[in-house]
Amino acid sequence: MEGVPGVGKTFQTTMFMNDWAKGNSNKDIKALVTLDFTELNKKKDEVKSMESLLDDFFNKKNVNVSKVDMKKICFILDGLEKCELPLDFVNNKKVKDLKGKASMDVLLTNLIKGNLLPEAHIWIISQPKGVYKIPSKYINKTVLCQGDAKEEEYLKKVILEEVGQHESDPQLSEIVMFESGGKKPVSPKDLFTNNKSLNSGLSDKSKNVRTVLMKGVPGVGKTFQTKMFMIDWAKGNSNKDIKALVTLDFTELKTKKDEVKSMESLLDDFFNKKNVIVSEDDKKKICFILDGLEKCKLPLDFGKNKEVKDLKEAASMDVLLTNLIKGKLLPEAHIWIISQPKGVDKIPSECINKTVLCQGDAEEEEYLKKVILEEVGQHESDPKLSEIVTFESGEKKPVSLKDLFTNNKSLNSGLSDKSKNVRTVLMKGVPGVGKTFQTTMFMIDWAKGNSNKDIKALVTLDFTELKTKKDEVKSMESLLDDFFNKKNLIYKDDKKKICFIIDGLEKCELPLDFVNNKKVKDLKGKASMDVLLTNLIKGNLLPEAHIWIISQPKGVYKIPSKYINKTVLCQGDATEEKYLKKVILEEVGRHESDPKLSEIVTFETGEKKPVSPKDLFTDNKSLISNLPGLSKNVRTVLMKGVPGVGKTFQTKMFKIDWAKGNSNKDIKALVDLDFTELKRKKDEVKSMESLLDDFFNKKNFVYKDDKKKICFILDCLEKCKLPLDFVKNKEVKDLKEAASMDVLLTNLIKGNLLPEAHIWIISQPKGLDKIPSKYINKTVLCQGDATEEKYLKKVILEEVGRHESDPKLSEIVTFESGEKKPVSLKSLFSYVPGMSKNVRTVLMKGVPGIGKTFQTKMFMIDWAKGNSNKDIKALVTLDFTELNKKKDEVKSMESLLNDFFNKKNFVYKDDKKKICFILDGLEKCELPLDFIKNNEVKDLKEAASMDVLLTNLMKENLLPDARIWIISQPKGLDKIPSEYINKTVVCQETSEQQKKLESCLKNRFLKEITDEKDETSHPNQKTTEHVIRRENGSEEEKSKQDNFRKVNQPSEIFKDVKEEKTRTVLTIGEADIGKSFHMKKFIKEWAKKDDTWSFFTWIRRPFSSQSKPAELLFLIDFSKLNLIKNKNISLFELLNRFFEETKNIIISDYSQLNTVFILDGLNAYQHCLDFENSKTLTDVREPTSVNMLLTNLIRGNLLPEAQIWITSQPPAAEKIPDGFIDRLTEIRGKIVFPEYAACAFTSNTCFLHFVLACP
């Protein structure tokens, strides 16, 4: 019998033994012999006979088995996988005689082979990895031990153990496919789904395809995708028809190229390593993941390899793989092959049903850009010794990289298309002038996305290399594929948007016969290299592509001018940069290569859109509607962002981009001012002109250009200490008019000063209200790579993260179907029976001090760390105490949320539908919460009272997709109707806390009670006895003393009789008779017991140490109750008064625990107990009089499951009516029989009592 670890093999053997022992089955078996290979390993050096081995076994059992019955033994040999004996079935000597001595290994092999005890039964138990230790010919029957889950589930468990930790890895890639020329994402569940991109040779057009090839560039995330697929399958989220995953690596498979084995053997090897069993049927439903095709060294000869269809047929690894891929072996299996582009040609396309592409965040264009930057990016900082210029109307004009393909008047007259972009540009320049530098800068600029964004790929060809291919005949498609394969790149984008950079025209030795060469338009049409190039340049091939041809002057004649649309010249440093730009680049240019950790975005019509530096001052739909007639460019932009997100980085990039002339060319100068610096000048009076002169003087620069075209960068608005009084400050329009700094700034921002200037204001969220919104034309947001959600998580961890290591004193539970079940933080909002989706509103109740705040902090920390509730995008914590203060305010839900996030110095522009509200302290809510009469509000922008907002939030009118967690003490639960609560959970102390309280009480009593050694010598031990006088308060005592039963152990006083529970015991005894002595014996017996059995329910079945509830004992002296007779007090407060332990360890519900109260000295209580007029009390936290509390505890209204032991002198016992006492016991002097009274009694004689009265 084989089975995976923990599946229940031992359970099955136990059931077999029980069934046989009861005589229910296998009656021909006379004895069971259970042996464990772990124990047999220890006897490997012993030499003994089989008879001796059996005698040892039966002697330990104290059993005799006859020689005849020994033949009918059943051996149960467990743990074969742990066997360290050689089990040499071939070379071990034959032994048939039971008395024949041999080693343990020889005995076992002869037993299994049937030489010894051939009539015996043998049941061998093993994990899968051990089954190979015994040849199959010696096994008559193989069975499998399965759990509730199939082998598939165990394999899923193994896979999750292996790769599950990668589930939270960042998703840096995706799987896509190109269908009908369009890109579509492919999810794990759709990986094997058929679609229109299947090869036409696929005969089966059913839903699922068999073989999928995924290709991707190195490092793009192919391994990540396979791990996500494995995790998704193992969690049961997709591909449920697949029964097992088999991951094989071509690198490993090549090490087995010389082995000859069957596919069945290959699979067994794989599953044995996993210690997993997969049935023959399930093997047909396997999914193979074959990784690293590009590293495959096997020939993969699909043409000549023999055909193999039988799983048991042995063949070479190459033959097995080709037959598996072709579908001869396991035709119903799925195969997922992973490869870099350079390996895809190893498998014929007809054997692939579906091809997908693994892409990173960037598409192929972005990968090519990355490759280009790796190749030439180091030259970005090379000194610029040349420039590109053109001569238009005799005037020299510089040509920027982004304008290289822009049309102008210098185009040759033969150009028929006068559109904005030209197709073919020729750049000429003398040797060494810097032509290569210019092409390198063009490539870097394109790769960085700074220019020529319509170009999707750069193809660099050199005429020197092309001449080596002059005799080759190939298509343009093939030429391009060769280029991209060298880059290890797949280019599936539009080849029409390629830019060819063809260098070294002067070295071209091809004829370039533009007249006689045949016309070629088809990319697949084959021709010589000369024909391909001439058709490319003429525009027959790829007419929408761009071509940049570079040549020394002596080569320009090789191409007729009519095929050149634009000619430019590469010259040395002939112009001067603006000095200010040079200064700026010296100051911040080094930051150009800083990692881009943030971006600028705007929310136009609610949708997030990126904002590039060149578009910062461009108008869009997010402009404020009360500014009519705005042109394309806006004047004042406000950028907000949380601390550390990268606002300074963005301003540096803007300055670099402007200084390099890449954007905002209408701006003539940048002036960056910091509000921190400006506040130091609050008392100065100067003009705007003077302020600007001060700035430029610091730059050692004289600015004589038009000051109207300045761009101000005003940073750190949140630190501004100036009043910025936009209402009362005087109006200033003249640059030469002096005023305070506050007046200058307000007039600049309002547009009175320099109305044509641009202003970029940067602020943290908490500074936004310093400038009225009507003076801001455009608002943008600076975001990091992480979303706002991540920043909020950071804030939360800073606020409450220190509590992560706080001791766990409470837990969240739910009582579903009456059974307590723990609720984890990640399942707080999980589905509950009766609901079709995840719950929205959860109510958590808990007594004061139990740890509700601790649980909310743990929830916040767990969410902030990304461990749970990942669909929640933000947490909003509100306290009803604070909300009470806003009862008279009228505001919208959007405003309420903005107030919350502003306090966090945080901008939340994400989906407010995915917020989780944590509403704490419901019991303190003073708002009416009128769910019936309050107006309905659904619009986040609609203003209403706080009460109306809250009721509509809870009723799902506002933010119906949000989550709400309401926290309350029990007294607040009725404030919200139950129909608005989807799930109720309870915060209570942990079982460890309950056990801790039990332990503390035991330690306390053990210290207070006399040491155990004094117990035997105590006078009451010898002179008194404890007897039960009557049961269940049935009759008066009368004269039933002849029926008294002695109490042997103190705990017997609560022993149930005839299945009737004994709850309340009254023990009477004269003063000083020994009641306290017996009570202390009871307490000591409780305090010293172990945790494996229940003390108070000892007559019932024992508990396991894990399931047994805590057992508490409280000793209360009636005399001490006299001190609080006039006070109202709850049972909870009473315990806290007498027991420091219950103060420190709060118990939410004593009814869940086994509790005994010992009420000692009823006779000392100075008040009567009014059982007739006492009202019913059931809440341990409800204050009442001591009399009311005691009567309800004794009657069983309070804690009905608790047990009560009351001690009293006889007269005072009448304070408790008979009907409330289940058992009456007495402590009395011992009855002594004189020696002379001893005699032999017959069964018919009476038993006489001799009572010795002592004076």
From TrEMBL:
<dbReference type="InterPro" id="IPR051261">
    <property type="entry name" value="NLR"/>
</dbReference>
<feature type="region of interest" description="Disordered">
    <location>
        <begin position="1011"/>
        <end position="1045"/>
    </location>
</feature>
<keyword id="KW-0677">Repeat</keyword>
<protein>
    <recommendedName>
        <fullName>NACHT domain-containing protein</fullName>
    </recommendedName>
</protein>
<feature type="domain" description="NACHT">
    <location>
        <begin position="1"/>
        <end position="138"/>
    </location>
</feature>
<feature type="domain" description="NACHT">
    <location>
        <begin position="635"/>
        <end position="775"/>
    </location>
</feature>
<dbReference type="InterPro" id="IPR027417">
    <property type="entry name" value="P-loop_NTPase"/>
</dbReference>
<feature type="domain" description="NACHT">
    <location>
        <begin position="840"/>
        <end position="982"/>
    </location>
</feature>
<dbReference type="Pfam" id="PF05729">
    <property type="entry name" value="NACHT"/>
</dbReference>
<keyword id="KW-0433">Leucine-rich repeat</keyword>
<feature type="domain" description="NACHT">
    <location>
        <begin position="210"/>
        <end position="351"/>
    </location>
</feature>
<feature type="domain" description="NACHT">
    <location>
        <begin position="423"/>
        <end position="562"/>
    </location>
</feature>
<feature type="domain" description="NACHT">
    <location>
        <begin position="1063"/>
        <end position="1229"/>
    </location>
</feature>
<dbReference type="InterPro" id="IPR007111">
    <property type="entry name" value="NACHT_NTPase"/>
</dbReference>
<feature type="compositionally biased region" description="Basic and acidic residues">
    <location>
        <begin position="1023"/>
        <end position="1045"/>
    </location>
</feature>
